[in-house]
Amino acid sequence: EDAFWRQRAKTHWLQCGDLNTKFFHASATSRHKINRITSLLDSSDSLVTNNIGLCEVARDYFVDIFQKQNSIIDPVVNLINPSITLDDNTMLTAPFVIEEFKEATFSMKPDKCPGPDGFNPGFFQHFWPTCGQEIFQQCCSWLATGAFPPTLNMTNIALIPKGDSQVSMKDWRPISLCNVLYKLVAKVLANRLKRILDKCISNSQSAFVPGRSILDNAMVAIEVIHHMKAKTKGKLGDVALKLDISKAYDRIDWIYLQGVMTKMGFSDQWVKWIMLCVESVDYSVLVNGIMTEPIKPSRGLRQGDPLSPYLFIICAEGLTALIRHAESSGDIHGVKICRNAPIISHLLFADDCFLFFRANINEAVAMKNILATYEAASGQAINFQKSEIFCSRNVLQVDQHNISTTLGVQAVLGTGKYLGLPSLIGRSKKSTFNFIKDRIWKKINSWSSKCLSKAGREVLIKSVLQSIPT
What we know:
The protein has 3 domains: 67 residues, no CATH class; 180 residues, no CATH class; 146 residues, 2-Layer Sandwich (Alpha-Beta Plaits), CATH 3.30.70. Helix content is 47%, strand content 12%. It has 19 helices and 15 strands. The strands form 5 sheets. It has a 5-stranded mixed sheet, with helices on both faces. It is globular and about 70 Å long. InterPro entries: DNA/RNA_pol_sf, Retrotransposon-Effector_Assoc, RT_dom.
């Protein structure tokens, strides 16, 4: 009974804490209430409350998102430099060994949500001595033939609420629940891909590359913004543009992804394996436990697929290539905080983007064109209404207004948070970082702590602290 409610509660942080059914039952009940969809606005802004109507609204929403649009990839792909060598491709396409699949199997958390087939990782871990060899042979056979069984890559989309109120589908975050057998194949490929990411991913990208930390870009961003805040003299002002990308993973164009990998130098065999994983998916949306009719997408990457984070940052190299080309041609100039410091033109952490350029109309127009070119190639959609700029203090108000109007974004006194940390730190450090204390107190005073002993509460506090600033 304890194991059943532990799986239902999804409280993975409690591995060393209390093991009481009361806590897990309360967690599962709370999750069920929070995740239940009671009403949604459809495309005509009519309120839908019945389950059949809710399923139709959810399915129509994702059909529109996953529908391919015409892309123009050459202006971006042609700027990407080859970086993958023959030795790299030999390693990527080398014959598979059973140890790779065993490592992939046991690297998953046993109680992770299963896919449509209902088997979670714990099942395969428990029975690996019995079925491991057969799984290995079957997975190798699928990759050798270049085809998956029809049901292997079926994926359920679970909806997680965002914010305090959920009115439309935009207020729900989709999480893809893949079959574990598919995830084994994808994880083996992802583990190989990780070894050569530092060769094809620029230093401005700090996400998912082994050896790079989330704090690298966060600290650089804070230093640059601090420099801009203190810059009161000089004719050359600076601008920091923080982008908000709408549905970043869901809109990635498959032809663009294939073109970028090919231009980087990945072999045809490797590209074929990756595109097999990406293009063979079928979706069904879970609405209050009801599965919608299947959706056959023509673009997008799944959040929940082991390959998706690495494929996304490979696609983001197109934006880096465009910015570097504009820098080399003198169309934009990055920020340099001191004489011996490097020039910073952009900082990326997956879909969190910070771009820097000089405060004049010409560079604002150049940056706008770069973003439009990237959107047309990759399928990405930048939400300029939620994006914002911060100008150094030596930039006149009229110039700030002209730049913000040109870009279609709002000018702000600070740039909010970047990667969970405040990008602008004022004189009062206490007020700046007070959100950390508030988050901890919210957890301590929540209903869940009432079901825990003092030792369990200690584990809860540590888990919250370790999750900051993510």
